[in-house]
Amino acid sequence: MFTAAIVNQHLQSIPHAKALGLQCYGVEDDFIEIILPYADHLIGDPDTGVVHGGAITALLDNASGFIARPGAIEPGGAAIATLDLRIDYLRPATAGRDIIARAEMVKGTRTISFIRARAYDNTIDDPVAISTAAFMMGTPNRKVG
Amino acid sequence: MSDEQTEAGNGLGRFLRGVRIDDQPIDFSLLLERIPYARFLGLEVRQMGDEIITELPASEHLTGNQNLPAVHGGVVGAMLEFTAVLQLLHDTDCERLPKTVDISIDYLRPTRADRKTFGQAIVTRRGRRVANVRCELWQQDRATPVAASHGHFVLAPVDA
């Protein structure tokens, strides 16, 4: 079981998560929540101020990957690899609002984890995006090529 | 708001409409400059005839795994989405940014954070309102893609 402090420590070790300002928003037994604070540099449509889908992709990927591999948080430990990630953008995010991703493990095996996540900016019942991802466990966490 | 401010900031819709009215080809570099998130990523674009190639220079702040080091999966997804949208703007006369309905991303190999990444998309099916677009990213070798995607994009609202 991990805590908000561990999640935040891990996020701090990921340069892109730091650049996005990702923070742990909540940890429960069966899900984790990560928050993406609204920022001007995340805007995808300057006419509306709405955050670009790519930033939501990063948020969903990070939250999903986190719940997929609680055992691999230690630096240098076995890593995981995202096999695929499908995102449905249900509605535009509201300009000016922070976005929270809640990720839940649907099924975890020794080889593959199946994760679902929702991104919302108001209530969890009215998500801006939903995602489905599969992760492969235990890939070598070292320099490639 | 002065014209100068409009030029720099709030004029993406105006920029696209202006290009369409004048029937000019889109300067995709100028378009990306107007999108804050594209500037944050450092995304660039090169156009050779009908071929649009996006380019993402290596940068520390895009790293998702420092041990490999690999580009963050979200950045990979964002680049795929941008590449698809630019190809759609090129292939259609859409007067606004196409909106992503869904995107399905396959991560094929680690995208190395110390190398430049390239992207190219193909519009698989273009309907009146919705298009299906496939996209690939690669680094040193076009034949060994690091990621691929397919997705749906809304070109025009239902009432258009």
Helix and strand composition category of chain A: alpha+beta
For the biggest sheet of chain B, the summary is: 6 strands, antiparallel
The CATH superfamily name of the domain at 44-154 in chain B is Hotdog Thioesterase
* Cα gyration radius of chain A (Å): 15 Å
Strand order of the largest sheet of chain A: 1-2-6-7-8-5
Major sheet summary line of chain A: 6 strands, antiparallel
N-to-C SSE series of chain B? Answer: HHHHEEEEHEEEE
How many independent structural domains of chain A? 1
Percent of residues in helices of chain A: 10-25%
- Our estimate of the beta-strand percent of chain A is 35-45%
- CATH homologous superfamily descriptor of chain A: Hotdog Thioesterase
Our count of helices of chain A gives 3
Strand order of the largest sheet of chain B: 1-2-6-7-8-5
- Which shape of chain A, going by the Cα principal axes? globular
Describe the fold and architecture:
The complex is a heterodimer of chains A (145) and B (160). By secondary structure, chain A is of the alpha+beta class. Chain A has one domain (4-139): Hotdog Thioesterase (Thiol Ester Dehydrase, Chain A, Roll). Chain A has three helices and eight strands. The N and C termini of chain A lie far apart (34 Å). By secondary structure, chain B is of the alpha+beta class. Chain B has a domain at 44-154: Hotdog Thioesterase (Thiol Ester Dehydrase, Chain A). Chain B contains five helices and eight strands, in the order H-H-H-H-E-E-E-E-H-E-E-E-E. Chain B has helices spanning 3-8, 12-21, 28-33, 36-41, 73-91; strands spanning 44-48, 51-56, 63-65, 70-71, 99-107, 117-126, 130-138, 147-154. In chain B, the strands form two sheets. A six-stranded antiparallel β-sheet of chain B has the order 1-2-6-7-8-5. In chain B, strands 3-4 form a two-stranded antiparallel sheet. In chain B, a hairpin with a 2-residue loop joins strand 1 and strand 2 (51-56). Chain B is globular. Mean pLDDT of chain B is 90; it is low at 1-9. The interface between A and B is large, with 45 and 45 residues.
